Amino acid sequence: MDGILIRERYKVVQVLWRAENYAAVEVVDIQERENPSLLVNLYGGELLHRYGEIYAGMKDCPAFRGMFLEDGALAAVFQPPGQGAPIDWLFFRGDRWSWSDRLNAAGVVMHLALSLAALPPEVSCAALCSDNLLLDPDEGSASARFLIRPMEEMTARELTLLAGDQLKKLLPRRWDSCDRQLEMLERLELGDFPSIVPMYAWWRREEEEIRADAEALAQKNFVSRFFILLWKNSKRACRAVRRGT
């Protein structure tokens, strides 16, 4: 498929994803000089009409460049994402990011999730999947790659669950986690937010409390911090044992 011209304008340079009745390709707009790179989602078969209706009603998406029919397939064109790497490449078990870096990253991810909430769930949920969620910790930014592969039964609530999964990845339960962070993780496990708007409002409050809690702990000297964490983790372990009996 590489090298193929779509609509005699978009030259395919890389196939990003391929499945039944769907493909995502990186293309170069040969008529554009300054920003020629684009991402094109191609839908065929029963997906053509389904996604045609979705994109026809889509608003408030600056990255969306439009759609057209090409050889019996629907082509939806998007601008490429901003700078960054997929979240799973940066944040994983054993990485060395500080709690401040993690909290900052969580903040920009939640802001991105809120901005995606105005889009159809089939688009917003796909854009917030881990391979499409790009972070640049140095710049303090998050962006979505609009590789919109077909996903079944997506709803506004599914977007909150995806956002919650990304928060849990950025702020995992660790030995040195503050109490407020652990309370936040317990709430996320419930998965009871109906949409991203109330979840974002809740997050803003939690973010301030977690930062204050973590900063207070960080100001302790090493010995004091060690014994505080030892005491808190001992209490948590005892509570876990009691709940299990």
Report on this structure:
The protein is an alpha+beta fold and 245 residues long. The chain is built from eight helices and nine strands. It has a six-stranded antiparallel β-sheet with strand order 1-2-3-4-6-5, with helices on one face. Strand 5 and strand 6 form a beta hairpin. Helix 3 runs antiparallel to helix 5, helix 3 (99-116) runs antiparallel to helix 7 (196-218) and helix 6 (179-190) runs antiparallel to helix 7. The longest helix has 23 residues, at 196-218. It is elongated. The chain starts with a strand and ends with a helix. The mean pLDDT is 86.
Strand order of the largest sheet: 1-2-3-4-6-5
Please give the number of β-strands.
9
**Could you describe the largest sheet, including whether it forms a barrel?**
6 strands, antiparallel
Helix-strand topology string: EEEEHEEEHHHEEHHHH
Mean pLDDT across the residues is 86
> What ranges have pLDDT less than 50 throughout 5 or more consecutive residues?
none
Determine the strand fraction and express it as a percent band. Answer: 15-25%
Main structural class:
alpha+beta
Count the DSSP helices. Answer: 8
Helix content: 40-55%
